[in-house]
Specification:
By secondary structure, the chain is an alpha/beta fold. It has ten helices and 13 strands. The chain folds into two domains: 6-215, 3-Layer(aba) Sandwich (Rossmann fold), CATH 3.40.50; 226-286, 2-Layer Sandwich (Alpha-Beta Plaits). The chain is 32% helix and 28% strand. β1 (6-15) and β2 form a beta hairpin. The structure holds adenosine-5'-triphosphate and magnesium ion.
Length: 304
């Protein structure tokens, strides 16, 4: 087993009487896109700040590449972190901002992955325009370009779509998609549920500083609710499902059926229908992560 890239174990962080993070654990393996999902005040930013060595934990441990980091640690060079708002010089172009920032770190721009960073950021010709003419979303993409110059092995992003409009959010989602196609490892926080559902492979839900659930996005959705199925014979499917253990209510919806799963998995429902000789056209979660998340926060039991 190789060491996880991020390993947080039993982490607690108190600010005076406030318990921001409480016995929280999280792991990110190489190649995962992990979403840290939670409502306002859940403890997401605090968790990421402790991980980056910007805060000391009250208890527990947060490791990056197997190491507890402090400001200046070598391991931090392998991380591109956006935990605070990226700041740029507005009167200068995006490109000049990138160059000055890189050179301020003592490097030559020729050694940076400029092409890769620009390709992911997707700013096109706008890279030569003054930053003060950029939209919020463009500034955010320039922030990504800056992180990527150093070819980081891990990206840590605190609410990367915060303050963006729906079009800009879509662009950031596409950008993260380009990163993950290249095999980057990402840990991002969000309270946009659909966002995590669409961008992430794994999700960790936190609330009041505590771990609520974790697993793959698919697991989290499929273990908590119902599936939508389309078959060639709905009436016969209803009879088959009525006799299948672990299946609750079955209701007709549109061209298909909504099947409530009480104690069974989606794959078992598929197997029962196919086993009975029905032709299964579609089977998918009938609810998104948003519903699963709300159920979790209501304290409903789920096993993921
Ligand atoms: N420096 C601090 N001093 C005192 N309390 C703090 C400090 N930082 C965070 N907190 C408190 O800790 C709790 C968790 O805050 P945190 O910012 O980590 O949550 P979050 O999940 O990032 O929320 P948001 O979605 O609003 O960004 C909150 O109650 C917050 O007020
Ligand atoms: Mg926050």
């Amino acid at each position: 087993m190789t060491e996880p890239i991020v390993a947080i174990e039993g982490l607690s962080k108190r600010f005076g009487a406030v318990s921001a993070v409480d016995d929280f654990s999280l792991q990110v393996e190489r190649g995962q896109v992990a979403g840290l999902l939670g409502p306002n005040g859940a403890g997401k930013t605090t968790t990421l700040r402790v991980l980056m060595g910007l805060e000391r934990p009250s208890a527990g441990v947060a490791r990056l590449f197997g190491t507890v980091v402090v400001p200046g640690s070598r391991e931090l060079r392998r991380v591109g972190a956006m935990v605070e708002q990226a700041a740029f010089v507005p009167q200068l172009s995006g490109m000049t901002n990138l160059r000055l920032w890189w050179e301020a770190g003592g490097g030559r721009l020729a050694d940076a992955d400029l092409d890769g960073a620009l390709a992911v950021a997707g700013l096109g010709d706008a890279i030569d325009r003054k930053v003060k003419t950029y939209s919020q979303g463009m500034k955010q993409r320039l922030g990504f370009a800056r992180l990527l110059l150093a070819r980081p092995e891990l990206l840590v992003l605190d609410e990367p779509t915060n303050g963006l409009d729906p079009g800009e959010i879509r662009e950031i989602r596409e950008l993260i998609g380009r990163l993950t196609n290249e095999g980057s490892t990402v840990l991002l926080s969000s309270h946009h549920l659909s966002e995590v559902e669409q961008t992430c492979s794994h999700v960790v839900v936190m609330n009041h500083g505590r771990l609520v659930a974790s697993g793959t996005v698919t697991e989290l959705i499929s273990s908590s609710g119902s599936v939508y199925v389309e078959v060639d014979d709905r009436e016969r499917a209803r009879a088959v499902l009525a006799a299948t253990p672990g299946v609750g209510n079955v209701a007709i919806q549109g061209d298909g059926l909504i099947v409530e799963l009480t104690e069974t998995r989606r794959s078992d429902v598929a197997a029962a229908l196919v086993g009975a000789g029905l032709r299964l056209e579609t089977i998918m979660p009938s609810q998104g992560l948003e519903d699963a998340f709300l159920h979790l926060l209501e304290g409903q039991e789920v096993s993921v």
